[in-house]
Design a protein that fits this description.
Distance between the termini: 53 Å
Shape: flat
InterPro entries: Dimeric_a/b-barrel, EthD_dom
Order of helices and strands: HH
GO molecular function, one term: oxidoreductase activity
Helix content: 40-55%
Strand content: under 5%
Protein name: EthD domain-containing protein
Largest sheet: none
Family: Belongs to the tpcK family.
Structural class: mainly alpha
Length: about 70
């Protein structure tokens, strides 16, 4: 008999320290953090891990759009 497993989605928002550039932030999270996290994720049977990085230019476009539509 197959058993059902419940999944938990756990979103986390990480803000960049203003003392580092966007490139430094992205490089850290994709090249350093992801490598360290991979081992932890595997040990804890995590089935998925995704990072989304939103560059300043995109955030500015979104802010303009948000203001335009009220």
């Amino acid at each position: 008999m197959a058993t059902k497993e419940r999944l938990l989605k756990f979103p986390v928002m990480q803000h960049r320290n203003p003392d580092i550039t966007e490139d430094e932030f992205n490089r850290h999270w994709t090249q350093k953090h992801a490598v360290v996290a991979a081992a932890w994720l595997q040990r804890n049977n995590i089935i998925g891990y995704t990072q989304y990085h939103t560059p300043l230019a995109t955030r500015q476009l979104a802010a303009g759009f948000s203001e335009a539509i009220g």
